[in-house]
Amino acid sequence: MEKTSVLVGMSGGVDSSAAALLLQRQGFRVAGATFLLWNGADGRCGTEREAADAAEVCRILGIPHHIIDLRERFEAAVIRRFAESYRQGRTPNPCVDCNRSIKFPGLLEAADRLGYARIATGHYARILRDGEGRAHLAAAADRRKDQSYMLWALPRQALERVELPLWQYEKDAVRALAREAGLPVYDKAESQDVCFIPDGDMPGFLERYAGLTPAPGDFLDGDGAVIGRHDGCWKYTIGQRRGLGVGFGQRMFVTGIDPAHNTVTLSAGEGLFRRRLTAGELNLLEGELTGPVAVTAKIRYAARPAAATLYPLEGGRVLVEFIEGQRAVTPGQSVVFYRGEILWGGGIILPELPPED
Prior knowledge:
The chain is of the alpha/beta class.
């Protein structure tokens, strides 16, 4: 197996296409692999239409292209988990689950089967190697586009074999590279929604797919008093202000969801900021947590890293204590830890939020 052979995960978009182009120019023996993930008819990640776009890019580059059907695995590991999280009053991030359970393990399996030493994607993040050759995941040069947050759950074996050639590029430069190379996807729009809910109708999808029929319940205030009625607690997320369906004479925010009692707690802002959270399903890329560790942490993709301390808890959980309160800490979302530019690890925010001081 050549050390300079690489299998690129190609979604049919400009980023993964440019990644294949750059690796080819760097002297790698390149092939593309596209996963079929669901049976969508439009141009979203994981559909046959996107696979056709990726195949055309590979034809232009003169490299092999492989289509791999992972639809059953994707439904079990991503779509079902997504629906079950909402049933439990959580707000999941399916892209994190897909990277962890589908894309990177799938790329590794395909690379081994097809005889490629390395794997690659079009994510905007960086791989740093220390003096011993050990790989570390780091933020991209353009922090506005950095996608390292979405990769915290990478299996360690994937991290050691992955190439991320876009780490030093801005999006406009990537599009220019693709255009100059004659790749037809150079001006393709980015998908902003959940790929398997192309119409953006989350409640409709959950009702159709998971049978989560509307179940009216109570809106509560911070003292537990009933202040209105909602039409299904799984339709709401922490921090939500719009679309509550009831007027309260002032701005109200969702600060708690209790699916066991079918209640949604609202406040005018009290309780929206929290300094402490617990997380599970940890993936610590830089070693075990045996005592307090100072980090910067993000509780959502677009958040700025904030100073925090990690404390190990029983059961493979961690307490994250921020210096300053974080807005709308949301169970089901990812909390990701950095030390300097290195991504140290991450986990899933749990519903059991610890008491504030």
